[in-house]
From TrEMBL:
Protein name in the entry: Precorrin-6A synthase
UniProt cross-references to CDD domains, sorted A to Z: Precorrin-6A-synthase
Pfam families: TP_methylase
Pathway(s) per entry: Cofactor biosynthesis; adenosylcobalamin biosynthesis
InterPro entries, A to Z: 4pyrrol_Mease, 4pyrrol_Methylase_sf, 4pyrrole_Mease_sub1, 4pyrrole_Mease_sub2, CobF
GO biological process: methylation
Keywords: Cobalamin biosynthesis, Methyltransferase, S-adenosyl-L-methionine, Transferase
NCBIfam families: CobF (TIGR02434)
Amino acid sequence: MSVACGRLDDVRKIHVIGIGAGDPDQLTLQAVRALRSTDVFFVLDKGEVKSDLTQLRRDMLDAHIPQGSYRVVEARDPERDRAAGGTAYSPAVGDWRSARAAIYQRLIAEELGDEESGAFLVWGDPALYDSTLGILEEILERGEVAFEYDVVPGISSVSALVARHRTGLNRVAGSVQITTGRRLAESFPEGVDDVVVMLDAHQAFRRYVDQDIDIYWGAYIGTPDEILASGPIAEAGPRIERLRAEARERKGWIMDTYLLRRNPDRR
Ligand SMILES: C[S@@+](CC[C@H](N)C(=O)[O-])C[C@H]1O[C@@H](n2cnc3c(N)ncnc32)[C@H](O)[C@@H]1O
């Protein structure tokens, strides 16, 4: 991606690097190469509870590149209006994305020299439930700062989840859908029996505990705090609820993902 503005070699370079779901060993060789060619890392902190995630990113840098060869610039993520539900949900996300775009633009304009390259380290894969690419496009559209960017794919929490459970995402010639807890709480997706659920703060799977469904669940996958659980949802569901509540209490935050497999005996 490039913009026609200024001499090409003047244009700042940005890498959007997928860093995997939490384990520094999940960085690809391409990601490590991109890390090593980066002068400035931009890290957005979501506040006290998520500062563990900022530290995990810093640990990844320590694990793969010599200290002193780069700078880290931290900024505070704007608060998102999570109370906005129903039809208000999309505008709330739009406002939040624009607020983020203003911060990213300032970071790129003020912290990155013309000849330098910067990087945003994105959890999992940048293509999955992440707004970084949309935000960079929004900044380019504003036309106030010029840069070109590339994207390095990462191991998503979805890939990490099914690998840890040693299962696949789909069954033979079948479909799989990736969705959010918010959508699953409304209904089970039609025409598909294998559903991956992310961003679920309210354990939407509870609605389906009386159905013929297996659940494969994982929290903090790839990190030292990883917890896994699986089984028929009637039995594993209540166990997961307990594990989840205990972990949330202990750490103050949780990131979990799960696969629901309807009619599990059908291959
Ligand atoms: C904003 S999305 C980012 C997804 C990310 N781009 C990816 O590829 O995995 C955040 C959601 O990803 C999932 N997630 C990310 N990392 C995780 C991990 N280490 N363990 C379990 N779930 C994770 C959770 O469902 C969380 O709510």
